[in-house]
Amino acid sequence: MINHMTTLGFHLQEEEELLDLADYAYKNGTPFETEKGIYVRLEAGGGAELWLQLNREQVAIGMQPHFTGAGLMEIGIEGEVQREEANELDGTFYAWAGPGRPGEGLYSFVFDLPDRDRYGPLTQPILQHVQLAAFAHELNVFGSEAEYNLFRLGQSPGEPIAPPESFVSNGLTEHGGQPISTAAFGGRVLRAGWMKNELTGLRFHWALVRTLGGDIDVVADERLVGEREIREGGILSGTFWLSGRLIPADH
Prior knowledge:
This protein has 251 residues and is mainly beta. The chain has helices at 15-28, 145-155, 222-225, and strands at 30-33, 38-45, 48-54, 60-67, 72-80, 92-97, 108-112, 126-142, 166-168, 182-196, 203-211, 214-221, 235-247. The chain has three helices and 13 strands; from the N terminus they run H-E-E-E-E-E-E-E-E-H-E-E-E-E-H-E.
């Protein structure tokens, strides 16, 4: 079964495997103490990361994957999503893409952060840069824009064809009363290649994709890519979970 962990080459299907991985991260990762607890960052190679969460009593309360890549997007943070099921080290932001004030950006969206408490209180709204990692749930790969246009035309005959660089914030539609950190977008592949998780030896696919608003790192389980390997110069579209880390202004 494909999930966010297998997307980065972690073999994770059973609860026992999750506990073993959390224990390994605790013993081998790099700790970052914050006001509310401790994050432990485990780098697995190829950009793959795990962020283990420990509360003030140093009890594990969660673990989130992230991919650190070359993506960069200018955003405005408008507020935070308060989830009933979230713990004190989780974090989710409302944001808009592009410079400007709320309501003047290109579009709004929601994304999760694996290390929210490391940034402390943030005055909102505030302009920031973010490195977004998009974990593929569904994926379409095209060798050219012409191939993409034929696909879109077949899906919606007679309707205008959405441009390759497009972004739809489907996570803003309420799910059980709360938005979720998902989006449907497409873009042009600037760079692509296979990455290897050094801890498991499993590989996964990565692509730097230019979409409306900026560049996003897309990662996908090898089984989801199938025979259509993602290549530089092609077009990619799909639905994704969004994980982001804020980038300092002097980066």
